[in-house]
Amino acid sequence: MSDLTTTLPADTRSADASLAKRLLRDPLGLVSLVFLVVVVLAAVLAPLLTQHDPTVAVLGDVLADPGDGHLLGGDSAGRDVFARLLYGSRFSLLGAALALGVAVVIGGLSGLVAGYFGRWFDTLSSGAAAVLMALPGMVVLLAARSVVGTSAWWAMAIFGILLSASVFRLVRQTVQSVRNELYVDAARVAGLSDLRIIFRHVLRVVRAPIIIQAGFIASVAIAIQAGLEFLGLGDMSIPTWGSMLNDGFARIYQQPLLILWPSLMIALVCLALTLVANSLRDALESTSSPRRAVAPTSPDGASGDATASATNHAADDAGTLLRVEGLRVGYAMPDGSTKEIVHGIDLEVRRGEVVGLIGESGSGKTQSAFAIMKLLPEGGGILGGRVLWKGHDLARLSERDMTRIRGKEIAYVPQEPMSNLDPSFTIGAQLVEPMRVHLGLSRAQARTRAVELLRRVGINQPERVFRAYPHEVSGGMAQRVLIAGAISCEPELLVADEPTTALDVTVQADILDLLRSLQDDFDMGILLVTHNFGVVADLCDRVAVMREGDIVERGSTRDIFVHHEHPYTTQLFDAILTPENTRQPYRAPDQPTTPHTEVSTS
Ligand SMILES: Nc1ncnc2c1ncn2[C@@H]1O[C@H](COP(=O)(O)OP(=O)(O)OP(=O)(O)O)[C@@H](O)[C@H]1O
């Protein structure tokens, strides 16, 4: 029970400091944010801050010096520079927001879909992004001007589309890197829909690079927009920082200050946007929990609803929960061929029965379990056979229907407790979510149930563990958390893939005890994938021995232990460490060798 005594840090909510507080603690970010807020307020309140109309030219005020009725002087047409600066900021900020919005919406959404789902959309959108990136932005904007006219809004929207390619690439790459994380698989096994997984697990990872990129895009948009207007390609009837630059440049020798103000504003706003983005990213990252590998996750289980699956034509005999017939699994190879790795296995699990699937590494145990749950990785598929569950063939069920079964009726306990929990969320949050989806519980009800489940799986500080992040618990405790999640919806079948392999030996026995007692309490069937005959002896009623994609021998655990016949089973038994095949104690070269029988077994 060593894992149960693990003491959590006194302050498990160390990452609790609010986003605002963290932002305020970064002086550069704070100053930049205040500056941006002032600029935005000044733009909004421009009519209150100056009585001058930015477009009205007064001949007497041409190139007027600062002071003299004009805070920052007059420009070459006698318009008030301060008023133009204020009203110009409206245009620059809105233009940047438009370009940013277009880039993030188009690039972000397509990147998410391409990165998460891949397939034809990925091919298509990656090609489009490559084309967009290859286009010279300024030339496209100049060409677009002949079609859409001088409208700066159109120019910014087109610029946003061009920039969306960089957002697309960034998001796609980030999503791809997180899509195969075990905690994402675990969420899938828990029965969460793709949309929920994207919103809960994937977006969290993507938001940091997007924020940084957003600061960059907004800055570039302001600079490009000013550049177009500086070249005289904008709408000269509205005050903008770019047109002020143009005017200032033309009068640089007569009134050098004219070019200073818009340049200063452009530089400071761009700098502030970048610094605020950096600061916001840092604050978000530090409030969203430490990210480091964690442990397994749990799916949830079956409906407590005994009436579940009204199609009560269970496979044949009443007690049979799962019947696998001739299951064949394969992977598509790069040369177009298919590599078959499971060659037509039969398997049956009855209610309340523990069936062990044992074999050496690479024999196909895990792939068989994944195929049963229809969770094969990309490229993998069921080539033939049936997976009968309550009268349905899971092999032919749609993903939508599988989502209802996985986590609710069939739950999964994975092998590595430290990689199946999302490091960004507390343990409680990860337990609560599937229960809300499958059992329709309110947040408070799901919370109460989660704490009860944590207590039930032997965690003696359930409230604290509920609030803890995955990195704050031990591997054994993480495995208990995953088991708690797996049984949270009272599944009828639990698929456990080497649930103790990654754990310390002292913890392994506790976890096996736990599985046994839960199986008794819930009368679940368990399909236990293992390579360890000790685990089989401890837990299983029946066992199937798997080798190179085939089941070579099966029977009751007792029969297999006592009367196994297949040479491969014998080979597996021979590999078990016994006093006879342990190494003899060291003897100096001149001492006689001790026969095996003398080896102490104490
Ligand atoms: N993505 C894949 N593409 C092609 N072959 C694969 C892929 N994943 C697994 N395999 C093959 O499937 C076979 C069975 O793998 P599986 O993971 O089921 O083994 P296992 O018996 O569970 O072993 P272990 O206990 O080491 O996980 C292996 O030969 C492996 O090479």
UniProtKB/TrEMBL annotation:
Cross-referenced CDD domains, in alphabetical order?
ABC_NikE_OppD_transporters, TM_PBP2
The record ties this protein, via Pfam families, to: ABC_tran, BPD_transp_1, OppC_N
Region called Disordered, residue ranges:
288-312, 582-602
Q: Where in the cell is it found?
A: Cell membrane; Membrane
- Regions of biased composition (Polar residues) lie at 591-602
Q: Where is the ABC transporter domain?
A: 322-573
User: Membrane topology per the record?
Assistant: Multi-pass membrane protein; Peripheral membrane protein
What is the predominant subcellular site recorded for this chain? membrane
Q: Which GO terms describe its molecular function?
A: ATP binding; ATP hydrolysis activity
ABC transmembrane type-1 domain span: 89-277
Q: Which InterPro entries match?
A: AAA+_ATPase, ABC_Ni/Peptide_Import, ABC_transporter-like_ATP-bd, ABC_transporter-like_CS, MetI-like, MetI-like_sf, OppC_N, P-loop_NTPase
GO biological process entries: transmembrane transport
What GO CC terms are in its UniProt record?
plasma membrane
Keyword entries, A-Z: ATP-binding, Cell inner membrane, Cell membrane, Membrane, Nucleotide-binding, Translocase, Transmembrane, Transmembrane helix, Transport
| Keyword Cell division appears in the UniProt entry | no
Q: Which PANTHER family match?
A: ATPASE AAA-TYPE CORE DOMAIN-CONTAINING PROTEIN, OLIGOPEPTIDE TRANSPORT ATP-BINDING PROTEIN APPD
Protein name as annotated: Peptide/nickel transport system permease protein
UniProt source species: Sanguibacter gelidistatuariae
Taxonomy-wise, where does this protein's organism fall, top ranks first?
Bacteria, Bacillati, Actinomycetota, Actinomycetes, Micrococcales
